[in-house]
Design brief:
Elements lengths: L1 H29 L1 E9 L13 H13 L2 E9 L2 H10 L6 E2 L3 H9 L38 E13 L25 E4 L2 H12 L8 H15 L2 E5 L3 H6 L5 E5 H10 L3 E4 L5 E8 L8 H11 L2 H11 L6 H4 L2 H10 L3 H6 L1 H4 L3 E2 L6 H53 L1
Parallel strand pairs: 1-2, 1-3, 5-6, 5-7, 9-10
Antiparallel strand pairs: 4-7, 4-8, 4-9
């Protein structure tokens, strides 16, 4: 009798443990994990205009292949500097970020990034060798790898052939960005490194050697230019150039192709004096709460079908051989612009004099920040202050004259 009782209790306990284990697993499977991604604006296929929603596709992949309920919380930044400030302050926690080369170098030095376990990334083998090993100029010599390239490209000058005379001798040079006949029709970068880069390349100076005298000379160039600049922009450039609201702007080659698709009056060149070549890469910041899932996301973004979707959405140059060599991708890009492949990967791109941004010294970073604030202060309120002061002085002068005349009239009345 006792033996039967013990057996019944054992069975009951076994059933209870099984139920609890099943409930725990079910609860674990139903629990939603949020992956926080921080990227540039207009930099991922998002489902608009018939494109693939890549973040949604990753969520589906996680559910179907990994058995995880994942939600991607995707937000964007407009400059490396604003992204860096947010990560550095710790005011927000992200799992995947996409900085540019020089900012990756800075973040590595500041111990803000986690090393990546490349052997866990199945699709890393398809990254072109020119973006691996010693060619990764922006990661330092720690022996670790902190990034996987997402897109790369070069900066050029976009101009509207309906406004800019195609016989203008300045076409082909940074000088076009300083041409006074297009006053009020010129757009400049709204970030310090790229804006000063345009002036430094124009002057023929090293963009990575912070020499105060030379950078002050670059500031003078930008202060001269600000008299004819319509505005300092980033993503706003799309609407302005597509709608003929501006005629000239420095921007990235991939974005030019996006704008051209909407406005075929737009043309493009890489300046003869030289220009910036850059790499934007995926990293995992320290403080990430989902390292393993972040690694899955990075590998997913390197998958051929996903990388092609992103490349066809952004029109930026892909570091993946599976994309560049894909016939359908090349054919699709040729439909966007007959010279698209040449602009991104061909002879036109390869014959340009280029220099990549490197992380500046601490003195250089402080100096650049001071010069940028000086430029923005003068460009945004400087003229207004001068005009306002002039108006105030004019009003005071009129009041003084009125007071003198009035005093003389009263004096005559009592004489």
């Amino acid at each position: 009798m006792k033996r039967k009782l013990y057996l019944s209790v054992a069975v009951l306990l076994l059933v209870l443990v099984s139920v609890l284990a099943f409930s725990s697993c079910a609860e674990e499977e139903s629990k939603e994990v949020t992956l926080y991604v921080y990227n540039w604006g207009e930099y991922i296929s998002d489902g608009s205009e018939g494109s693939l929603d890549v973040n949604r596709a990753f969520e589906d992949y996680c559910k179907e292949e990994l058995g995880l309920n994942v939600s991607v919380n995707y937000s964007t930044f407009s400059s490396n500097e604003s992204m860096y400030a947010k990560i550095k302050s710790g005011s927000a926690s992200y799992d995947v970020i996409v900085p540019s080369d020089y900012m990756i170098e800075r973040m590595v030095k500041d111990d803000l990034l986690m090393p990546l376990e490349l052997d866990r990334l199945e699709n890393y083998r398809y990254i072109d060798e020119s973006f691996k090993g010693e060619n990764v100029y922006y990661e330092g010599d720690s022996g670790n790898t902190y990034s996987v390239p997402y897109f790369y490209g070069m900066v050029g000058v976009i101009y509207n052939t309906g406004i800019v005379d195609e016989n203008d001798e300045q076409i082909g040079s940074w000088d076009l960005m300083w041409d006074e006949q297009y006053k009020g029709n010129i757009l400049q970068f709204n970030n310090s490194r790229d804006a000063f880069g345009t002036a430094l390349y124009k002057l023929g100076y090293d963009v990575n050697d912070y020499n105060e005298e030379r950078w002050r000379e670059a500031l003078d160039e930008l202060l001269t230019q600000k008299e004819i600049v319509q505005g300092y922009v980033m993503d706003e450039i799309f609407n302005k150039m597509k709608s003929d609201s501006a005629a000239i702007a420095a921007y990235y080659a991939g974005d030019y192709l996006s704008m051209y698709e909407e406005n075929d009056k737009l043309s493009f060149f890489y300046p003869e004096e030289g220009t910036n070549i850059y790499v934007d890469a995926m990293c995992i910041p320290k403080g990430s709460q989902n390292y393993d899932l972040a690694m899955e996301y990075i590998d997913f973004m390197c998958r051929e079908d996903i990388a092609i979707e992103n490349a066809l959405y952004t029109y930026y140059a892909s570091p993946l051989t599976t994309v560049v060599n894909n016939p359908e991708y090349r054919e699709a890009m040729a439909e966007v612009h007959e010279d698209a492949i040449d602009i991104l990967y061909g002879e036109t791109a390869n014959n340009v004099k280029t220099q990549a941004y490197l992380n500046l010294s601490p003195d250089g970073i402080r100096g650049l920040n001071i010069l940028w604030e000086e430029l923005k202060a003068k460009s945004s309120i400087g003229n207004g202050i001068y005009i306002g002061c002039g108006v105030i002085l004019g009003v005071l002068a009129l009041l003084a004259v009125f007071h003198v005349v009035k005093k003389r009239r009263w004096g005559k009345l009592y004489d």
